[in-house]
Design brief:
GO molecular function, one term: transmembrane transporter activity
Pfam families: FtsX, MacB_PCD
Keywords: Cell membrane, Membrane, Transmembrane, Transmembrane helix
Number of helices: 28
Structural class: alpha+beta
Number of domains: 5
Distance between the termini: 28 Å
Membrane topology: Multi-pass membrane protein
Helix content: 55-70%
Family: Belongs to the ABC-4 integral membrane protein family.
Shape: globular
Radius of gyration: 34 Å
Largest sheet: 10 strands, mixed
Length: 860
């Protein structure tokens, strides 16, 4: 009980200092809990949606997607004849069976030809209005579609794009463009996470999406009373045979949920990773806080030991303070985490993904994980200061002496730090020298961890040297005040090293990712300059957005073009000369002019020959693995066609970026083995202008593509900019997540300075008494903060650039050969670090300046 009272008294005696540490714990726990609540809520939302929209049993064509998506390279969904509906109705246990048709391979536009699609990445669905939809949706205005000129739209899409009854809509599919007017608006009875849904009558949907009537993509089956879904599935399968896919409502919901979870898990673990980085940074803050508090209470600890307190009791007293800090910070963090989750839901709502707070899901594991993490991390971080406090002897403490083993511990620490840093450096060297990406990645990961820990351990030694250098460059110009700031930073190298290390971690990751991203852009741009010989690249804005035949013909008719090259991807299995079957391969089918559009390097043969009848090319790695040479014969079994025996006429190099690992055939060759109705649409179309007509052709192409806003035309400058923007957006998102760790690091600087001011109260009073002005005192503290921040930035940026340069060496194995250091970003971050130091010093400097001189001198 005495230990608890002592701990409580000490905790509330330093509540300001503890509050800053608690904020670090709070932020880290809140980020973890917010991530878990947000992803759990999304899972709940999708789970309710999938359960509500699934019929008892669903029948679809064999080979169709488990999740019901109809995105395919042909642009058409897989269908079944209408006669199947009659067979299903005749099966035992069936109360009702209704055929439906829908597709997600459709672009919908308004009267101005602006795209009506979700901004959240959810699909656009066009389908037939049916009884199953009527069960899950409510028509809020107008009527359901009853003819070819009518379409019904979901309420969220109507609100977002300002659609009303009578608004004109165009639906662009592989079949053509169908125009209709809004006849009704329907709202989901459960939360719609953001999909845009358009309903036609059945006959119109069949003509618009498939090009013919009498076919369905799905059959929704309702069970008779007392018949379970599993029993119904068996009965339907018995009536149809095994030529169709038959799924229960649970199987459909589970398949959809699994697809969603795969995306959510990537997001969840990425966010938790950044929360872990923030926790790591927070550890330094807590260690510094308790180290300084223990140092300030050295005499008090001596008195406790002198009157009979044991080492364990002193140790326990500090750990109880840490426990209180962890519990308070974690409890507040759990609450803040729920708030963060709600904020993320609102943000996703602005981006088009609607999530209702009615579905807010806080599993019991979320607060448990948050509390455990916060408390365990805090107590572990406080263990070293607590142990150090318990080792101080009563007489040494009463003399204000430190622990006798401090000097020896410093030497041991320096040796361990040097060994770890050296081992990490060797690992990075091995990673850079690796000839296989898998091997190099392992060495890189080991090198990153070892050098990071090494720099943290060796921080005090580095601080002693670097701060002197920084003092000579930055602080000496400020005269005596600058020299005092330098001495203050050097007074306790361990403290300075730990404070700088907290900032170092976040900035090291920023520098590393900046180098990798910049090198990727520079390398890809260089490869584009060397290999791409076409003027224009036309492609869809989504992975499965293809260029339909109508648009291809319009592109070919665009004035000012010299040539147009079509480019398709076909799924196939290959049987090689060594007798092995290589399944799930992709064969790139293109016009012969593609050899001019993309100048791919070969190690054997001429790529132009691969586009001759009965010919193909393979890539270097595949050829070596299967002993293929120019003249070898490969059996190509096209997934949607028959088997071709093709002669290898060229082997392409693996040392490329564009189309790395591609195998080429001519479209005319593929057409001999794949029926026209199963031939994939063009993935990309390349176009080259006549000499001197580039600008006019570019303008004409843009005008042509106005008919299909899902397609984009880019010249090489546009393509490079798009690549740079994509990588830049990804990096900006990562930087935003790393900002949490940097905020925690800034709190660490603030806390260190604040405690340092308290520690030097008498010293500050004496300096003021002999003539140091308030302005000079504040400047001294600000300069000390700046030099600590710049010290951390130097370590972080140097370490990060080393990691980034090593990672680029691994990327060179994938054809990305250029190392590009983004100096503007590095310099900006370095300068920003100095301002971070100034910002962190504002409150400690202000409080120091307000000290009463006489009270400060009288402080014990």
């Amino acid at each position: 009980m005495t230990v608890l009272k002592t701990s409580m008294r000490n905790f509330f005696a330093h509540k300001g200092r503890m509050a800053l540490s608690a904020v670090a714990v709070l932020l880290s726990v809140a980020f973890v809990c917010g991530t878990l609540v947000f992803t759990d809520t999304m899972n709940t939302t999708f789970d309710k949606l999938f359960q509500a929209t699934s019929s008892d049993v669903t029948v679809s064509a064999k080979g169709s997607s488990d999740t019901g998506e109809t995105t395919s390279r042909t642009g058409k969904p897989l269908v079944m004849p209408a006669s199947v509906v009659g067979k299903v109705r005749g099966a035992e246990g069936v109360r009702k069976a209704e055929g439906t048709v829908f597709s997600t391979s459709v672009t919908v536009v308004d009267a101005k030809k602006d795209k009506l699609s979700p901004s959240s990445g959810a699909p656009t669905i066009v389908g037939s209005w049916n009884g199953n939809d009527a069960r899950t949706m409510k028509i809020t205005s107008g009527t359901a579609p009853k003819g070819p000129d009518q379409v019904m739209v979901d309420e969220d899409t109507a609100d977002k794009h300002h659609l009303k009854i009578g608004s004109e809509i165009g639906m662009i599919s592989v079949v053509g463009t169908h125009h209709a007017r809004v006849s009704g608006i329907a709202a989901f009875k459960v939360t719609n996470p953001g999909a845009a849904i358009f309903y036609l009558d059945t006959k119109t949907a069949q003509q618009t999406l498939v090009g013919r009537t009498g076919v369905y993509t799905n059959i929704n089956v309702t069970a008779a009373k007392g018949v379970s879904d599993d029993r119904l599935k068996k009965d339907v399968t018995a009536a149809l045979g095994h030529g169709y896919k038959v799924q229960t409502a649970k199987e459909v919901a589970d398949a959809n949920q699994k697809s969603v979870e795969s995306f959510l898990n990537v997001m969840k673990y990425a966010m938790l990773g950044f929360a872990g980085i923030a926790f790591l940074v927070g550890i330094f803050l807590i260690i510094n806080t308790f180290s300084m508090l223990v140092a300030q209470r050295t005499r008090e600890i001596g008195l406790m030991r002198a009157i009979g307190s044991s080492r364990k009791q002193v140790n326990r007293s500090v750990l109880v303070e840490a426990l209180l800090l962890g519990v308070i910070g974690s409890v507040l963090g759990v609450g803040a985490g729920v708030g963060i989750a709600v904020g993320l839901m609102k943000l996703m709502g602005n981006l088009g993904m609607h999530l209702s707070t009615d579905d807010l899901t806080v599993a019991w594991t979320t607060p448990t994980v948050g509390l455990l993490l916060g408390v365990v991390v805090t107590v572990l971080a406080a263990y070293l200061p607590a142990r150090r406090a318990g080792k101080v002897s009563p007489m040494a403490a009463l003399r204000d002496a430190g622990a006798p083993a401090d000097a020896r511990a410093g030497i041991v620490r320096a040796v361990i730090g040097l060994l770890l840093t050296g081992a990490g450096g060797c690992s990075l060297y091995l990673a850079a020298s690796a000839d296989k990406a898998k091997t190099g990645s392992g060495w890189l990961g080991l090198g990153v961890v070892a050098t990071l820990i090494g720099f943290v351990v060796i921080g005090p030694l580095l601080a002693a040297g670097l701060v002197r250098v920084l003092g000579a460059i930055i602080l000496r110009v400020f005269g005596p005040v600058g020299r005092m700031a330098e001495r203050n930073a050097l007074r306790n190298p361990r403290r300075t090293g730990a404070t700088g290390a907290a900032l170092m971690i976040g900035l090291a990751l920023v520098a590393c990712l900046s180098v990798v991203g910049s090198s990727m852009v520079a390398s890809a741009t260089d490869q584009l300059d060397k290999t791409v010989g076409t003027d224009f690249i036309i492609q869809g804005d989504q992975q499965y957005t293809m260029v339909n035949p109508q648009m291809v013909q319009k592109i070919k008719g665009t004035p000012g073009l010299e040539r147009v090259t079509e480019y398709k991807l076909l799924d196939a299995s290959l049987t090689t000369p060594d007798g092995q079957v290589s399944k799930k391969e992709t064969v790139n089918a293109a016009d012969p002019t593609y050899a001019q559009d993309v100048r791919t390097k070969t190690v054997a043969g001429d790529l132009a020959d691969a586009y001759k009848p009965g010919s193909m090319s393979v890539f270097e790695g595949f050829a070596k693995k299967h002993g293929i040479k120019v003249g070898s014969t490969v059996a190509v079994d096209f997934k949607d066609g028959t088997t071709a025996r093709l002669t290898v006429r060229a082997i392409t190099s693996d040392d490329v970026v564009v189309d790395k690992g591609a195998m080429y055939v001519a479209i005319s060759t593929a057409a001999q083995y794949v029926p026209a109705d199963r031939m994939p649409l063009d993935q990309i179309v390349f176009a080259s202008a006549k000499h001197g007509q580039e600008a006019a052709a570019y303008k004409a192409l843009k005008s042509t593509l106005r008919d299909d806003p899902s397609l984009t035309v880019r010249d090489q400058t546009d393509f490079k900019k798009a690549l740079k923007d994509q990588i830049g957006q990804l990096l900006n998102m990562i930087y935003g997540l790393l900002a949490l760790a940097i905020i925690v690091a800034v709190l660490g600087v603030v806390n260190t300075l604040a405690l340092s001011v308290v520690e030097r109260t008498r010293e500050i009073g004496l300096m003021r008494a002999i003539g140091l002005s308030r302005r000079q005192l504040r400047r001294m503290i600000r300069l000390e903060s700046v030099v600590i921040a710049v010290f951390g930035a130097l370590l972080g940026l140097g370490l990060g650039m080393g990691w980034g340069a090593t990672a680029q060496k691994l990327l060179s194995l994938q054809g990305l050969h250029i190392l590009d250091i983004p100096w503007p970003t590095i310099i900006t971050v370095f300068i920003a670090s100095a301002f971070v130091g100034l910002f962190a010093a504002l409150i400690p400097a202000f409080r120091a300046g307000r000290m009463n001189v006489l009270n400060a001198i009288a402080t014990d």
